[in-house]
Amino acid sequence: KSTLLDYIRKSNVVAGEAGGITQHISAYEVVHKSGKKESRITFLDTPGHGAFQGMRSRGAKVADIAILVVSAEDGVKAQTLEAYKTIQEAKVPFIVAINKIDKPNANMETTKLSLAEAGIYVEGYGGDVSWVGISAKVGTGVSDLLDTVLLLAELAELKGDPKKSAEGIIIESHMDPKIGTTATLIITDGTLEKGSFVVAEDSMAPVRMMSDFSGKAIDSATFSSPSRITGWTSVPNVGAVVRTYAKKKDAEEEVTKIKRIPVVEGEYERKEEGVIVIPLIIKTDVAGTLEAITHEIAKFKHERVRLKLIQKGVGMVSETDIKQALGSTTALVVAFHTKADAPAVDLASRTGVTINHFDVIYKLTEWIEEIVKERAPHIEVVEEIGQLTVLRFFSQQKEKQVIGGKVKSGKILNNSHFKIMRREVEIGEGKV
Fold this sequence. Notes:
The chain is an alpha/beta fold and 432 residues long. It is 25% helix and 33% strand. The strands form seven sheets. The protein has a seven-stranded antiparallel sheet. The radius of gyration is 30 Å and the shape is elongated.
């Protein structure tokens, strides 16, 4: 999938990805020439790894058209079905891209058959879903795929009104220590002009610093374009709807109406007898990744251990986060794709709090699984191995007593524990 996007936008991102996995939702605008006509297509790169289900469903909700990438070598895999389910839930028209057709083991017919078995019926196989055979590596069929996207857009009659005030959806947000809070939004309708004000839930920003997906400064942007705006009052939530206002006063009034959802989620608030609660503090570089990690943590199910997210946020690990961790001896502090600021590092080293750094989600989830196994309370099981009837008492010194007896059943082992019973009542215990 990433290789396909690379070919489309002629840049190499794959090599720079941590663990070879796309960690964020990113948007890229490409210009496609079909004959003499030039068309712009915006691609939302939604991560394919299972951990990103929460983020990926956000991506599909913003998209007009989805491309389901299937390998001509491997056919339908578990993540293919997961992505298909997301597409269905979002009710988005889609195209199947059968990739790796240049490989010697590629078999288009087998792949189409495995799609049909999974309930995805492509053209020529009992359905009307368009499909294109491609090689993301060498570029075969990529131009046909983009033509199919434009054809599907025409059939779906996707339209917008450039004269309207812009509306959009936040697809990414993060805190940059140098320039402030930045968010990327996809404009779904209207035109966004410099000098206006944008509101996303309880966060707002003046449209002063605006750039396109490549980081180039722009004065206006219209529907389908990804735009990055800096200067938000707080980090906006991924998936939040953005509205535009001409006056600052109107934008401020809108913000006061909305209250943010509390950080601690009810899922981690349950308290049960005999259950160990592990408090978690998580900081990530961007909001989309935070959502994906929260989604993964919610999947952890253990009879005797609960993970409780006591603090989460975007940006560096701060002194406040470490102070929060000090409230519990078992709290875990996680920095994902981000660092800790100097006061936090100083306080953590003085108080013995460990800041755990990660940059690949599945490594983080594996680590949490290990912690859960380690901290799970162990249940003692008493297993009777034998019975002995006491026949004679011999010498006694302090805690030691020598006795003689007869084994009635099973066996008596050295270093085993025993209970002394008289008429079915326990009167003592010890160790052989």
